[in-house]
Every structure is written in C-alpha cells, then in structure tokens.
Amino acid sequence: MALLKIRNLTVSFATSTGPFKAVDGIDVDIEPSEVLAIVGESGSGKSVSMLAVMGLLPDTATVTADVMEFDGRDMLSMSGAERRRIIGREITMIFQEPIASLNPSFTVGFQIEEVLRINAGMSKAAARARAIELFDAVGIPEPAEKMRSYPHQLSGGQCQRVMIAIAIATNPRLLIADEPTTALDVTIQKQILDLLLDLQETHGMGLILITHDMGVVAETADRVVVQFKGQKMEEADVLSLFEAPQHPYTRALLSALPELATGDRLPTVSDYFAEAGQ
Amino acid sequence: MSIVVEGKGLTQDYHVAGGLFRPSKTVRAVKGVDFAVERGKTLAIVGESGSGKSTLARIVALIDRQSGGTLRIEGEDVDIGTGKPTRALRSKVQMVFQNPYGSLNPRQKVGEALTEPLLLNSDLDGPTRREKAEAMLEKVGLQRAHFNRYPHMFSGGQRQRIAIARALMLNPALLVLDEAVSALDLSVQAQVLNLLADLQEEFNLTYVFISHDLSVVRYIADEVMVMNKGEAVEQGSRDAVFTDPQHPYTRQLFAATPITDIEAIRARVARRKAARAAALA
Ligand SMILES: Nc1ncnc2c1ncn2[C@@H]1O[C@H](COP(=O)(O)OP(=O)(O)O)[C@@H](O)[C@H]1O
Ligand SMILES: Nc1ncnc2c1ncn2[C@@H]1O[C@H](COP(=O)(O)OP(=O)(O)O)[C@@H](O)[C@H]1O
Ligand SMILES: [Mg+2]
Ligand SMILES: [Mg+2]
Questions:
Q1: pLDDT, tens digit, for every residue of B26-69?
Q2: Which residue puts its alpha carbon closest to atom 14 of ligand 1?
Q3: For residues B104 and A149, what is the distance between their CA atoms, to the nearest angstrom?
Q4: Mutate which: B22, B186, B198, vs A, most A CBs within 10 A
Q5: Which ipTM was obtained for this model?
Q6: Which residue among A65, A264, B110, B244 sits deepest, i.e. has the most Cβ atoms within 10 Å of its Cβ?
C-alpha cells in the first residue's frame, strides 16, 4: 500500500485579479521507504502542493483533491484532531531556510524538547535525554552543549541539522524536505543529503525531496516527478528519467544543464516555453 | 594579447566594530591574491560562501579600495583612493550583481536606468542617449518598446538582461559578474549564459565571472581561480583545473558537487537495491 496517495490535487489562490491555479491536478504516490524527488523550476507548484498536504497554506488557498490518503487513512474526511495526530508526527517537513524556520528567541534545545513533550508526550527529563541523542544522530558535535545555543549562534548547516533532528524526533513515516540544501554550500549540501539518505534508510522512512537541482535528483531519488506550471509532466524511476526522458520538457531541462554542454552554446527551454504559451 | 585586468597581492581587511563585551577586530577577507586576465577572456572565480569572492569583485569593479596590493586596468595602476574613479576609468569597468531587482531602482523606468550612465559619464544629448539605450535593449534580446516599462514588469531573467544592458552602456572593457546567473532557473540561466557568450564575442569583452556553481564555471571559464577563506588555493586553465585539480580543497569541492552522470546513477540504484534485498533477507 502506498504511504501517501494523492489524486487530482488542485490548489488555487484568491488574488486581486481572480483565482490563480498554482497546482493543477497533481497525482502523487510514495511507497514506504522510498525517496521521491519532485523537481521543477521556480513557481511550478512544488512547495504549494506539499504545503497543501501539511495543511499549512493561508486562507486564500482553496485545496481540492479526489483522494488524499496517508497509510490507507482518508485525510479528506478525517477530523481536525485526527489530522493533527498525523501532521507533525507521522508526516513532518523541513524547509529551505533553516535559520528562519527556527524561533530566534529560544534555544535550539528548548525547541526540540518542546516538540518531544508535545508531539511525543515525553517528560521534561526524557525529552532532554532524547534531544541530545537526536542531536548526536544528526551529527551535531558536542550535542549537550549545543542544546543551549540560539539559532543565530549556529551555522546554516548546523541549523538544518537541528531542523532534521526536530523533524525525525517523532519517528515519522514520511519526511517532506523542501529544498533543504538550496541555501547551503555544496560541501554542506553533501553532508546534509547524506544524512537525510542515511536516516531514510535506517528508519525506513518515506522521503519526498523537493528540489530544482537535477544533480541532487540524480544523487538521491528512487523515483522522480517533473513538474511544470502546476502540472506533472513526467514521472519515472531515476535511471529511466536521465537515460531516456520521455517528455519534451524533461528533455529540454536536461539539455539546459551546463555540465552536459557539448558545444559552445547551451540549448534552451524557450522553444518549449513558447509552445506552452508562456 | 593584452592584459585587461591584473591584481598583485590584493588584500582586503574589514574592521568589525566591537560591542559591550566584544573587542573590535580586523578580518582579512582577501589574503593576497594575484591574477591577470587577457582581453576577450573569462576568469571564473569559484568558492563557497564567505571565501572572499564578492570582496575581490568589489575591488576589481572599483567599488571598494583594496587594503593592500595593486590593481591594474589596461596596464595602468588604479587607486580609487577616497575619491570616485574618473569618468574614463568608470567607463572601463562595470559590475552585474546576483539580484537584478536589488540593483535596479523599482521607480526608475528601464530607459532611465540605461541612459543614466551616459548622462553621468558622457556628453551625449538626450536623443542619442535614447537611441543607444534602445539599440542595447535589442542587443540583449529585449525590445525597444521596453524602454518605457518598469523593472517589476519583467521576469527575473529579463531583469538580468536589463542589468547587463545597463552595464554595457559605457562600452566597458571589463565586466565583473558576481553570481549573475545564480538566482535564475536552469532554462533562463542557459539563455543568459548564451547571451554573455554572444556579447563577449561581439564586443571582445573581458569577464571576471564569480560563481559558486562548478558546472556553470566549467561551461563559461577560460581560466579558473578557486578561493577558500580569502586565499586563491588553485589557479589555472579551465581544462587543467577540471581534469587534474591539484589542491585538496578543489578536489573536495568537485567531490561534493552533484552530477547527473548515468553510470553513477546506475551504480547508486544497484547499491540501493542490494541494500534493500539484504535488509529483507
Ligand atoms: N500564498 C500565495 N498566494 C498567491 N500565490 C501563491 C502563494 N503561494 C504561492 N503562490 C504561487 O503559486 C505558484 C507556485 O508556487 P510554489 O509552489 O511556491 O512554487 P515552487 O515551490 O515550485 O517554486 C507560484 O506562481 C506562486 O507565486
Ligand atoms: N562589509 C563587511 N564587513 C565585515 N566583514 C565583511 C564585510 N563583507 C564581507 N565580510 C566578510 O568577509 C568574508 C568574505 O565575504 P564575501 O567576500 O562576501 O564572500 P563570498 O562572496 O565569497 O561569499 C566573510 O567572512 C564575510 O563575513
Ligand atoms: Mg518552493
Ligand atoms: Mg558573494
């Protein structure tokens, strides 16, 4: 059974010029223990579609779907209370800006302990011990001392490790990572991606990785969804996608990669964009 | 063959003011960097954040004066001192930044943004300035009619074209591009890189191209400088640096950069299958 199954997800925003469809009939399936990459250029609706699953969109958003099931449970018909038992515990999410995702006024130790107390029902002492274990597991050096740090006292990479520690604190079945390394340097990016894949494997979590970077897709995903203007262009296992991309948009994206340039000029996606009416 | 820009032993110190419990200190952000770029060529500077790329760029673009070392533009020692660079010097070197929205005034029409450098640095009359600006818009792949529009009416890629057009208005010899394509989507990035290649060929421009992205650097560079913590740890032709990196830091950077190599993907997929099978057994 799919861990998360979504059919015909649509999100539209009320704007001053009328409704704007940011996500236009997307289907998503992710199996337990699978790494699914959602790739696309900015504005293609990657974040909005996953924020819709998390219930984190503002009131101006209208979300509809024919099916939204987590682990066989229908998320569309369940009560708010039931939903909250899933979101933030069984499904957690991390974001692009790790420093901005943390509360600047509290120590990182306080923030992870709070999640453990509220979402995992732990006592203060148990939460503290578990928090130190988690910091250690995500590769934060001197975890007990680091608990006392405020977010601004840590580097971007360390803040993302803290966010990951918080996200796995409840042993989620599914972790959604939205451009988790886009704001980080490549050497730090590699460490964070290795950490995510390692945690994914040892805990058997599903991992949805949102990215705009084809290199990241190539080095992490089992399966890939290519998204453009709120729609799914192509879905394939990672090897097929790179070896034999089916959709012209995927082919255009891959040919725009500077690392694959053969001649003096880079092919561009503009022909496809013209066709698609942008 | 002529050298357009040359740096010798360039250093830059920042003085960071102290606080109540912190003494003030001096940070050396660039620690003695040498380079020379020939006319019509591209020197790419690559490195992670904080390595001193922008600091060096601002020296080369005559925005900040260096703390030490010498800078030569077209064979002449340049010292912007405390005053502004002369008109002639200002015309020779221009800079393009990562965020075109930040460098374009949102209340200024595109036409004004383009003619302003001419107004400040030349004696051309209004109609000539306008004609030059409209011709430049066409050159960078926009339209003459865009002269009267505001920056917010353009996409990110188009705004970067406007910033490039503005930088070219004074016929510079040298363009310093600081992460100029880093904020752009892949498809738009490819278009802007092609535009830069076309303009370089047409005007024999020299580029100092700063990027944290190795694949972009590999595509655009003739010469490469790798910076780490204010030092140029490796310098050489693109082929030398990419095929046979010497410095451990360069190798580390290459190893960390994700690539879309089919054989690597095939190997990774096989590894994962095997690990899963082992876990089930
Ligand atoms: N709160 C919002 N109100 C109106 N439009 C929005 C809102 N959030 C996102 N959008 C729009 O929805 C589209 C998809 O956005 P997003 O999912 O963030 O793209 P991606 O993550 O693929 O870059 C974009 O055009 C964006 O401007
Ligand atoms: N105006 C400034 N005052 C003090 N320190 C600065 C200033 N600008 C940059 N720095 C410091 O100088 C170093 C190099 O920064 P920068 O040149 O911006 O690096 P890069 O562009 O490679 O990311 C960093 O440690 C940065 O914090
Ligand atoms: Mg996004
Ligand atoms: Mg910089």
A1: 999 999 999 999 999 999 999 999 999 999 999 999 999 999 99
A2: A45
A3: 38
A4: B186
A5: 0.89
A6: B110
